[in-house]
Design brief:
This protein is α+β, with helices and mostly antiparallel strands. It has three helices and eight strands, in the order ββαααββββββ. The termini are close together.
C-alpha cells in the first residue's frame, strides 16, 4: 500500500529508585539514610538504517510512480465529469503511455459525449502495494513499476443528462483492486501503461 513514508520514533525511559537503610535498635537510633539513584541517561535512539544508493533510488521511483497514478485518477475524474469539454485525450495524454490507453481514452469520452452521459463523484486512492519493479534504479534505461492499487469508486456514478443512472452503469459498493503498470519515460515522467480493474471485482 503509496508508494508512501514511515517515521521511526524511539523512546527512552529513565527510572529513579529510592533505597532505605535500617539500623539496629541497640544503641542510639540513627537517622535513616536515603539514597537516590541517579536518573538513567536516555537510551540512544536506534540509528536509522542507511539505504544503499540503489535502494534509495528505487524507493524514490516507486513513490513518484504512485503519486503519478493518483494524479491520473484526478485527471480521469475531471475528463469523465465533463467529457464534451475541450479535448479529453489531450487532457489525459501526459499521464498515459501505451496505445491501449490512448485507444480507451479516445473512445470512452466520445461515447459519453454521444450518449450525453457524464460521471458524478470522485475516485479515491486508498492504498497501494508494490508487486513488481523492473530496471536499474540508478540507470537511464527503462524503469517499470507494477502496483496493486486499492481504489474507492463508491462515490462514482455514471448518469445521463437528466441525472439518472445510466442503464449499463455499475456503482461499486466497496473499494476494489486495480492492477497498474507504470513506466518512466526519457523525460522522467511516469506514465500509466495499464490500469485494469480485476474481474470479478476483488474487494480491498
Amino acid at each position: 500500500m503509496r508508494p508512501r513514508r514511515l517515521a521511526l520514533a524511539v523512546g527512552a525511559v529513565g527510572l529513579t529508585v529510592l533505597f532505605a537503610a535500617c539500623t539496629d535498635h541497640a544503641g542510639p537510633e540513627l537517622p535513616t539514610p536515603t539514597a537516590t539513584a541517579p536518573t538513567a541517561s536516555p537510551e540512544a535512539a536506534s540509528p536509522t538504517p542507511t539505504l544503499s544508493p540503489e535502494e534509495a533510488a528505487k524507493q524514490e521511483n516507486i513513490a513518484a510512480a504512485e503519486e503519478r497514478y493518483e494524479e491520473y485518477l484526478v485527471a480521469s475524474d475531471a475528463v469523465l465529469t465533463d467529457p464534451s469539454e475541450g479535448n479529453p485525450l489531450e487532457t489525459i495524454r501526459p499521464y498515459i503511455g501505451s496505445e491501449e490507453m490512448v485507444t480507451w481514452w479516445t473512445s470512452v469520452p466520445q461515447q459519453f459525449a454521444d450518449q450525453r452521459l457524464h460521471q458524478e463523484g470522485t475516485s479515491i486512492l486508498v492504498s497501494t502495494t508494490l508487486t513488481g519493479y523492473e530496471g536499474d534504479p540508478l540507470g537511464d534505461g527503462t524503469q517499470v513499476v507494477t502496483i496493486e492499487a486499492c481504489v474507492d469508486f463508491t462515490d462514482v456514478t455514471v448518469v445521463d443528462a437528466d441525472g439518472n443512472p445510466a442503464e449499463a452503469s455499475y456503482t461499486a459498493t466497496t473499494p476494489v483492486i486495480q492492477d497498474v503498470v507504470l513506466q518512466r519515460q526519457p523525460d522522467d515522467r511516469w506514465t500509466i501503461q495499464e490500469a485494469s480493474t480485476r474481474q470479478p471485482f476483488a474487494e480491498c
